[in-house]
Design a protein that fits this description.
The structure holds 2 protein chains of 2 kinds.
Chain A: H1 2-20, H2 29-43, H3 52-66, H4 76-81, H5 86-97, H6 101-111, H7 117-139, H8 157-167, H9 171-189, H10 197-213, H11 225-231, H12 236-255, H13 260-280, H14 295-315, H15 318-340
Chain B: E1 2-11, E2 14-24, E3 28-32, H1 39-46, E4 54-59, E5 62-63, H2 68-74, E6 75-78, H3 90-100, H4 105-118, H5 134-146, E7 152-156, H6 164-179, E8 183-188, H7 191-197, E9 200-205, E10 208-212, H8 222-229
Classes of the chains: A mainly alpha, B alpha/beta.
Chain lengths: 341, 246
């Protein structure tokens, strides 16, 4: 039993630390936007209905990392080497399930008066299915979907491909993808879609992606890629541009069926502001988590981007060029700072 | 090709490099020293990865601190942390480098195939870096350092974690390119390999160059010199190891 409790204590510590990596959510632009909606509803003494679908979307995406097997935190070779009897291994397997955050949420739902047990069970089933898909994806590396990200033209093409793949390991992108899919479904399947909804949806897609733009090198900090950037014979502007083009490529694809120009106006402004965080406030971003940033940068991005985006929608493409000009100035300045550092 | 004089680097109060001066013109120059002696710091300064506090360094006549992009075009580097991208496969790393160094795509493909073949990595071409062993990653980083035909090659511990056949191949490859005029500057812990093929050996301890083969006339075994000038073996025993199990 002493052996088991030592392992479970270590697992508990690992799960606690792992949950700590979700802290980035509290400075995520999309999450802050949901809070703002809920707060605004609270101030007006109405139920925050408008925030529910977005919250549900966020929670659905969170299911993927939250449903991972706690026992996965022990390297399989280490687990196999420990001198545990078969009975102890079975006990460990069962007891480790109690450390799964998804189980905690399911139990919480069951005790929450307004949620029926069926919903809690559906939640658990969804979590198990999600985990099954994740395990399947890990076991079949030849089918790694990232292989389908094509090479891009130009001499920065390899870097852009790497950046696109990196972006797809951050949960923010999946919120944006789901929003875009939802928007497409609304546009093409609804009997009478409201045209005014599309710029709003395009801005929401941009908002979901924008936190990542504040910390473009966050994922590189976890690997040795930052060293490679310093060794390649490229100027700072080329390195930043490769990051930005990957961001804009994904954004353009997602907002194309919604409102391309409004989305790009937001995206260019978000990148222009985000360069500051990317150069001066680099924070390690973890894979399969939400990106986090400084709240002040996020607010500047969101408010400025939404204003510019709406203005573009109302008054024309000149505001897209204005956003592009701000972006170009930011690229020039922060590339110079990169080179000087 | 490498000239540096009075290079100083401090990390807070810790002096990592204390007035290091050296010159290397051709061949294979090996820098030896214990962990924390300053080998990797010196390599990082010479490759522009780390700024120096004072002193000067030139590679092929280019001031390291002032002309970083020109410098990066003519050097190949195997850095301590390898400098690889988690989201790219082994082959894609080489495909990425070619165009950046101005090599045509067809030529890049040809060179990549040859490098992967000689480094016994051709079977791993489509593996993502996170699926590769440490040795495979190191060989990928080495292939990236060689792809653009650099004039000076900086290698941080190139033989560590490499299988014996690949180590011999790398050793022969480095000897061949050094004989064609490329300067190879490497750090290593493996004295037997360095003893066999380095044309010049430097030893560093506490951030200072304490021994240089260029300044010595009488040949002696490298191991003997290393233990005399750099560090001696600890004499402590661990009596609990091998005692009846607790």
């Amino acid at each position: 039993m002493a052996r088991l409790s030592a392992i479970l204590a270590a697992l508990g510590r690992a799960v606690r630390r792992d949950l700590g990596t979700f802290r980035s959510l509290k400075t995520n632009n999309f999450f802050l936007f949901i809070l703002l909606l809920a707060w605004a509803a609270g101030v007006s003494h109405v139920e925050p209905h408008s925030s529910y679908p977005l919250l549900l979307l966020l929670f659905f995406v969170l299911l993927f990392p939250l449903s991972s097997d706690p026992l996965d935190k022990v390297p399989p070779s280490r687990l196999a080497l420990w001198p545990l009897a078969q009975g102890e291994r079975v006990t460990l397997r069962l007891m480790s399930l109690a450390l799964s955050p998804v189980l905690w949420f399911a139990i919480l739902f069951m005790f929450f008066r307004r949620v029926r047990p069926g919903i809690a069970l559906a939640f658990l089933t969804a979590a198990i299915l999600v985990q099954f898909v994740a395990v399947l994806a890990r076991r079949i590396p030849a089918r790694n979907p990232f292989r389908f990200v094509p090479p891009f033209p130009s001499r920065l093409g390899g870097l852009i491909r790497n950046n696109v793949r990196q972006m797809l390991t951050v949960l923010d992108m999946y919120i944006a993808i789901l929003l875009s899919i939802g928007g497409c479904a609304y546009r093409f399947l609804a009997s009478n879609p409201q045209p005014a909804a599309f710029p709003i949806l395009a801005l929401l897609v941009g908002l979901a992606m924008s936190t990542y733009a504040n910390n473009l090198f966050g994922l590189d900090l976890a690997s040795s890629a930052t060293t490679r950037y310093r060794l390649l014979p490229l100027g700072g502007w080329e390195i930043l541009l490769a990051k930005d083009l990957a961001f804009l490529a994904i954004l353009a694809l997602l907002v194309l069926p919604l409102d391309l120009f409004t989305g790009l106006t937001f995206g260019l402004f978000a990148l222009a502001v985000g360069h500051h965080g990317s150069i001066f406030r680099q924070v390690r971003t973890r894979r399969w988590r939400f990106a986090g940033t400084r709240v002040a940068l996020g607010v500047t991005q969101s408010v400025g981007g939404i204003i510019l985006g709406f203005t573009e929608h109302l008054h024309g493409v000149a505001f897209l060029f204005a956003s592009a000009a701000i972006y170009a100035a930011s690229l020039w300045f922060y590339a110079w700072r990169w080179d000087a550092s | 090709m490498i000239e540096c004089s009075n290079v100083v680097k401090r990390f807070g109060d810790f002096v990592a490099l204390d007035s290091v001066s050296l010159q290397a013109a051709s061949g294979i120059c090996a820098l030896l020293g214990p962990n924390g002696a300053g080998k990797s710091t010196l390599l990082k300064i010479l490759t522009g990865l780390l700024p120096m506090d004072s002193g000067s360094a030139r590679i092929c006549g280019l001031e390291v601190a002032k002309r970083p992009i020109e410098l990066r075009r003519i050097i190949g580097v195997l850095p301590e942390d390898l400098g690889l991208f988690d989201s790219l496969t082994v082959g894609e790393h080489l495909d990425l480098c070619g165009p950046i160094y101005g090599i045509a795509r067809a030529e890049t493909r040809e060179r990549s195939a040859a490098l992967l073949r000689i480094l016994r990595l051709d079977h791993a071409r489509d593996l993502f870096i996170e699926q590769c062993s440490h040795g495979m990653r190191k060989k990928t980083a080495l292939a990236m350092a060689l792809l653009h035909n650099p004039r000076v090659l900086f290698l941080d511990e190139p033989f560590e974690g490499i299988d014996p056949v690949s180590a011999k191949t790398i050793h022969e490859l480095l000897s061949a390119i050094a004989s064609r005029g490329v300067l190879v500057f490497l750090t290593s812990h493996i004295l037997s390999i360095v003893d066999k093929f380095a044309t010049e050996v430097l030893m560093i301890r506490g951030g200072k160059i304490v021994w240089s083969s260029a300044a010595q006339a009488a040949p002696r075994p490298l191991e003997e010199i290393y233990f005399e000038f750099v560090e001696s073996q600890p004499a402590e025993d661990l009596p609990w190891l091998g005692s009846p199990q607790s």
